[in-house]
Structures are given as C-alpha cells and as structure tokens.
Amino acid sequence: MTFTHRLATEADLPAIRALMDIAIAEHLKDFLDPAQVELSKSIMGLDTQLIADRTYFLVEEEGRLAGCGGWSRRATLYGGDHSTSQRDAALLDMAKDAARIRAMYTHPDFKRRGVGRLILEICEGAAREAGFKAVELMATMSGEPLYRACGYHDIQRIIAASKDGVDVPGVRMGKAL
C-alpha cells in the first residue's frame, strides 16, 4: 500500500472533522485523563484558514483518509475555528519568524505507519520553499515523541488549556529547516 497526499478542500471538511474526533479520543487517552481529553477538544481541531490558504494536506491510502496536517505563514500556533483565544491571522515575517506546523492528526488505524512523518516532511518542505528557515508547533503529549524523533526541540512547556481545576499540558517545539 502506498500513501498519497493532496491539498484539502472545503468538500473534505466532514471527513477531516471525523478523523480529528477519533484521533483526539484515541491518541490522547494514553497520556491524559478523561477530563483532560474532554478539555483538549476545546483547543484542538481544524482551523479552516489553513484550507483557505492552501496549506493543509490530506494523506490517503486507496482513497481512505489516513491523516491530515498543515503549515501556516500566520501567527496562530494552535487551535481550531472554535478556539478563538489563540487565533492571530497576522502574517509572519519569514526573515525572523518560524512557520507554524498545525493541526496534525493520524487516524488510529494508521498509527505508527509513517503518516505523521510524511505530513511533517510535506509541511516542512512547503514552508522551506516559501522561504521560512524554521518551523514551530504546539505538541500534545501524544505527539511529542514523534516530533522529538523528527528533530524538534522544546521551546516552552505550557498549560494549553485550564478549566475547573483541569489542566491540559502542551509543549511548544521548534526545528531549523
């Protein structure tokens, strides 16, 4: 079986959202308790600006969605359309700012088959081609091992969300291109 990739379109939104829902529920449960997983949904998800900017990719195998992810030249580091507190549509200065790797998700059926690495390669290559010299991302606890294995380093450990005594940790990570 061979993976293919393409740019996402608005017609893909239902499939992307379904993949994100199952990926959040399945991948985070080994790292976070149920309350943290539930709170994670308030800050995770699709930022449709990535599709409008034509920087969001789908990875498929025989027409089945295996994963998705994108990169951005905008200041927003993480968060979906519904998580407005983290959103900043300002364009980055490629001479001094790092491009953002955003909204990476792998369907649990395709876990540990190279989907995440492929998405990173595609996004890093596109950001490099656009003139960026570095990339940054906000890692979940389940994504951190992949990013570290792909050469990313810690910039800052944060609480990405907090509500009613429940905290969701995150790690801002970066990599030179």
Order the strands across the largest sheet as they lie in space: 1-2-3-4-5-7-6
- The helical percent reads 25-40%
Q: Tell me about the largest β-sheet.
A: 7 strands, mixed
CATH fold-level label? Aminopeptidase
> Count of helices?
5
The end-to-end distance, rounded to whole angstroms, is: 29 Å
For the CA atoms, what is the radius of gyration? Answer: 15 Å
- Would you list the SSEs in sequence order as H and E? EHHHEEEHEHEE
Q: What is the average per-residue confidence, as pLDDT, rounded to a whole number?
A: 95
Number of strands: 7
Please indicate the percent range of residues in DSSP E strands (runs of 2 or more).
25-35%
| Architecture (CATH level 2) name | 3-Layer(aba) Sandwich
Assigned CATH class: Alpha Beta
Counting structural domains, the number is 1
Can you characterise this structure?
This protein is of the alpha+beta class. It has one domain (3-79, 86-176): Aminopeptidase (3-Layer(aba) Sandwich). 27% of the residues lie in helices and 32% in strands. The chain has helices at 13-28, 34-40, 49-52, 115-129, 144-149, and strands at residues 3-7, 56-61, 64-72, 99-106, 134-139, 153-163, 166-176. A seven-stranded mixed β-sheet has the order 1-2-3-4-5-7-6.
